[in-house]
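Figure 3 (text version): structure tokens given as input.
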């Protein structure tokens, strides 16, 4: 959406309640992007202007822009905002902050999912849901066996399974024991047949008191490196939920 943020777009069009048709047409004509208008808020300092939220249909990222009543003028926003009305300034700056966080998460998820898609199947622990009314089709959890928050997340696994299929990817991020534990789980879990047995193994090795023996964890180290960093996993457990 950087193109959208940097362009000053001018065209004539008919007005609508959320400026959806003229703004969407305007962006399509000027940039070739397919967007939709998610929200529109009138500015108090000028009744003819509104703050709108646009979503790029392809990338899933969002951007803020200001448009006029007719939807014939559109310009993107940055962090420098001056207004005689403090409410307008606060609205724009708070909305920008929320969108930056949202877009960062969208980009991170895309990077993480790309790495997961490239992994051999034996490094993705799949626990299928039995709930036909599950709210999500798939839930991906990047987890470190030595992470206290990941250990707490594992204790809630049965509630996760009510939401959808759970796919766990184990990394060795926090310590050598993290990698040794991940390797030991991977070495054993694919020989188990039932969900109950797999969860029992995870519970056993995730226990903080359990000590795994040192082993060759080269692939775990590579997987950890590929999944973490800028625009990827920066904290665990890292969870991606895909809607039905």
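Below: residues designed for each position.
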């Amino acid at each position: 959406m950087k193109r959208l943020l940097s362009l000053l777009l001018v065209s004539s069009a008919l007005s609508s309640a959320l400026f959806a048709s003229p703004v969407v047409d305007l962006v399509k004509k000027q940039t070739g992007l397919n967007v939709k208008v998610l929200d529109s808020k009138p500015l108090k300092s000028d009744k003819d202007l509104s703050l709108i939220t646009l979503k790029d249909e392809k990338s899933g990222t969002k951007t803020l822009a200001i448009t006029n009543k007719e939807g014939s003028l559109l310009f993107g926003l940055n962090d420098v905002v001056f207004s005689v009305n403090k409410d307008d300034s606060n609205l724009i700056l708070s909305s920008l902050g929320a969108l930056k966080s949202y877009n960062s998460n969208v980009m991170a998820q895309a990077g993480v999912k790309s790495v997961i898609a490239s992994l051999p199947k034996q490094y993705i622990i799949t626990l299928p849901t039995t709930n036909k009314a599950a709210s999500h089709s798939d839930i991906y959890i990047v987890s470190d066996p030595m992470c206290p928050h990941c250990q707490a997340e594992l204790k809630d696994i049965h509630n996760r399974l009510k939401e959808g299929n759970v796919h766990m990817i184990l990394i060795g991020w926090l310590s050598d024991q993290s990698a040794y534990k991940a390797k030991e789980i991977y070495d054993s879990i694919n020989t188990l047949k039932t969900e109950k047995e797999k969860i029992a193994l995870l519970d056993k090795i995730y226990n903080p008191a359990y000590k795994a023996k040192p082993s060759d964890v080269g692939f775990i180290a590579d997987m950890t490196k590929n999944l973490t960093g800028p625009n990827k996993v920066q904290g665990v457990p890292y969870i991606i939920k895909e809607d039905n």
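Confidence is low (pLDDT under 50) at residues 1-20.
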